[in-house]
UniProtKB/TrEMBL annotation:
Zn(2+) binds at residues 16, 18, 195, 276. CDD domains: ADA. Keywords: Hydrolase, Metal-binding, Nucleotide metabolism, Zinc. It comes from Anaerocolumna jejuensis DSM 15929. This is Adenine deaminase. Residues 11-325 form the Adenosine deaminase domain.
Length: 325
């Protein structure tokens, strides 16, 4: 039997983590008071009670309004730093953290406030032994023009993030909607990843577009790929991994999708386990891995392989990976 302590102690990389999804009720209340923002709740218990969802859509409806409490650079820094301290407790050596600039610029917060705050937290985390990089995500339910404008806004800060991702509501927002901006980002030397959420109307077509048309280097979620052996062969050949989030899945589709993860893992696909939005799903990375291990009776070898995969598909130099393992 794999214990919680064993899982927590394993060196890990976390690669699917939305910084805006790390907003714990305590910080939300503190920032609401500091910035004089009425969030409609007065106590931790009330905030927690409002964290209720049973689908991606209902989750996003709680998630975006909460971000109002984030106003200045210090707020963004505090949010990321709280997560990075938690990551340290879970023996996360390295993390690539998503952030959603449009969720902030659309309500009047300058791009530079967001990126400078988050980046400052990565500098501080390095001092306590957690290495972190940023991945800028576009909100796929906003127009392609907005993504392009965001990309242009970001270019002066290009040294502060290493990759580009795609998140938010996937319905009717296929990868191909963003062909132009991803092609540009790729040409500029950024890494590329994108969400292919669980059980979408066109999951396989979206995965196909992400892999073959956009040229993504990873799939965030992406377990519907089990339905298409030719796409599995493709990611095997190109060493493209999946960043899976079992507890998040159990909230939004009522299924951890552990069966699919294990099937792929045992075919040698680089499956990783991550927390997605840990404050909302009340589950940090070790909790996710433990929940999966318990429910699907993972062997110690499976768990170790998953941890190794997280470094395997991280966007860091091979020498660094050896140092962490
Ligand atoms: N999917 C899409 N958008 C998101 C997610 C997710 O898992 N988490 C935060 N924004
Ligand atoms: Zn996600």
């Amino acid at each position: 039997k794999v214990t919680k302590e064993f899982i927590q102690g394993l060196p890990k990389a976390e690669l699917h983590l939305h910084l805006e999804g790390t907003l714990e009720p305590e910080l939300k209340l503190r920032l609401a008071q500091k910035n004089h923002i009425n969030i409609g709740q007065q106590t931790i218990e009330e905030v927690k009670a409002a964290y209720q969802f049973d689908s991606l859509t209902s989750f996003l409806q709680v998630y975006y309004p909460a971000m109002n409490v984030l106003q200045d650079k210090e707020d963004f820094c505090a949010l990321a730093l709280d997560y990075l301290k938690k990551a340290k407790e879970h023996n996360v050596k390295y993390t690539e953290m998503f952030f959603d600039p449009q969720a902030h610029t659309s309500r009047g917060v300058p791009f530079e406030t967001v990126i400078n705050g988050y980046y400052e937290a990565t500098l501080q985390a390095r001092k306590f032994g957690v290495e972190a990089n940023l991945i800028m995500c576009f909100l796929r339910d906003m127009p392609a023009e907005s993504a392009m404008e965001t990309y242009r806004q970001a270019l002066p800060y290009r040294d502060k993030f290493i990759g580009i991702g795609l998140d938010s509501d996937e319905r009717n927002n296929p990868p191909l909607k963003f062909t132009e901006v991803f092609a540009l980002a790729k040409k500029d030397g950024f890494h590329i990843t994108m969400h292919c959420d669980i059980d979408q109307e066109n999951s396989i077509e979206h995965i196909r577009q992400a892999l073959l048309e956009i040229g993504t280097e990873r799939l965030d979620h992406g377990t519907n790929i089990v339905e298409d052996p030719s796409l599995i062969a493709y990611i095997q050949e190109h060493n493209i991994g999946l960043t899976c989030c079992p507890v998040s899945n159990s909230f939004v589709v009522d299924d951890m999708k552990g069966k699919e993860m294990l099937e792929l893992l045992h075919q040698g696909i680089q499956i990783t386990v991550n927390s997605d939005d840990p404050a909302y799903f009340q589950s940090y990375i070790s909790d996710d891995l433990y929940a999966l291990a318990q429910k699907y009776e993972l062997s110690q070898d499976d768990v170790v392989q998953i941890a190794k995969n997280s470094f395997g598909i991280a966007w860091i130099l091979e020498d660094k990976k050896k140092e962490y393992l």
